Amino acid sequence: MMLNRQGRPTAAGEAGTNAHPTFTGNKALAQIEPLIFEIGHHETTGVDLDEPEAFTPRLGGLERKEAIGLPGLSEPEAMRHYVRLSQMNYGIDTGLFPLGSCTMKHNARLNERMARLPGFSDVHPLQPVSTVRGALEVMDELSRYLVTLTNTTTVALSPKAGAHGELCGMMAIKAAIEAKGEGKTRNVVLVPDSAHGTNPATAALIGFTVRPVPARDDGWVHVDDVKKLLGPDVAAIMLTNPNTCGLFENQVVEIAKAIHDAGAYFYCDGANFNAIVGKARPGDLGIDAMHINLHKTFSTPHGGGGPGSGPVVLSARLAPFAPVPFITAENGVLTLVEQAKDATEQPFGRMTAFHGQMGMYVRALTYMLSHGSDGMKQASEDAVLNANYIRASLADLFSQPFGDKPCMHEVLFDDAWLKDTGVTTLDFAKAMIDEGYHPMTMYFPLVVHGAMLIEPTESESKASLDLFIAALRDLAMSAKKGETERFSGAPYHAPRRRLDETRAARTPVLKWTKPAPFAEAAE
């Protein structure tokens, strides 16, 4: 690899090709951006800070003894640095984001405008309740929508994300079991092999023993397999529907009945709720608890750069055990119940210091109000249509592990079609970067070898889908022709080339060290 005078790499593939090397290492607008430690100075900064007044340290001798040593930049330098870094990122505003099981949909700017209204963006969790009546009304209305869309009894808004929501739902189930005096006997949770990895982790975290439900060749969980595992020791099942194979569980009602007949509870992983909003109500299917990723189903992909939100809806069987804090009405005025001792029911406790992420509440409710019931239903239909359009358009080149059956919001392919090509799932995904696309979800779910999980969401037009499909078809035909060089070193055109991810994970470099001076050659 060649280096320019500043020690920057100028080899082919670093910010473009090396057909015409440049002094800076930049390729027009594809600019090489050094680390801030390489361009900043300890002596200068774009901000003037007053000397602090004298004070007595209260850190027990652990306070810093030397200068912190952070590099400083002028304001223009700082702005350029972070803008250039942002240009190296891929996001939903850059192009189609095909991550499966993640619902990276368009985040309407209307939602952002509402979330930035002063009464919401400036609200503080320690404000007196009397000063946040509007925020409480937003939360109450959001709760009404979530309960209606799922046909459940109540909702806990405080969980911050999906896994946090799983924990909330399972803790409510555990509290209900203990209230019936079965806490010492019901200690097993059934988890399908195809489940999200957080499911068994959540169950184990709060003391349950995990018993797997085997995967079948058709991608569904079968009620007969569940019944074989049921007994007086089973507390619950954790089932994702639609599942992580992109399929709607066609025996979900029968599974729910079997679980309830055995005295257990049905926890539904709601990560894929985007596929069925307005089409199916999980409460009608027999669920007792389900988390909903507001930051996925109701826009703001993956938290929008901040905390997510994972409210948990609860059936009548679990509603009394919903955690504090929660909203209630006293003489027609909304207020918060913040302590378990003040509740008339049996909340299992508190999961988090404050209620939740107000920005996510506002964005989600704005999404719901702007779409309406018909719009949310259409969004689900369009998400499923788009996924099936990709499935059908690639069916002649890609292999599908569960047959050519319709999928839900995401389509799952495996690597059987890559056999003997010398190209792996990882190679194919890296080559997608050169085509200007973020890779799909790879190697998940684990029950499928070389899995490639694609979720286009409802946000994409037919034109954007057609271009994406054409790019994947071109890559597929290239792999089948044996053009391995296109894949083995990809990406070639990204700001940085392929990492040795195994080495990076095993021997991470956690501290920047100033390199030795780079001497120029003599004239």
From TrEMBL:
Its EC number is 1.4.4.2. Residues 183-303 form the Aminotransferase class V domain. The glycine cleavage system catalyzes the degradation of glycine. The P protein binds the alpha-amino group of glycine through its pyridoxal phosphate cofactor; CO(2) is released and the remaining methylamine moiety is then transferred to the lipoamide cofactor of the H protein. InterPro entries: Aminotrans_V_dom, GDC-P_C, GDC_P, PyrdxlP-dep_Trfase, PyrdxlP-dep_Trfase_major, PyrdxlP-dep_Trfase_small. GO terms for molecular function: glycine binding; glycine dehydrogenase (decarboxylating) activity; pyridoxal phosphate binding. It holds the Pfam family Aminotran_5. Residues 379-481 form the Glycine dehydrogenase C-terminal domain. GO terms for biological process: glycine decarboxylation via glycine cleavage system. This is glycine dehydrogenase (aminomethyl-transferring).
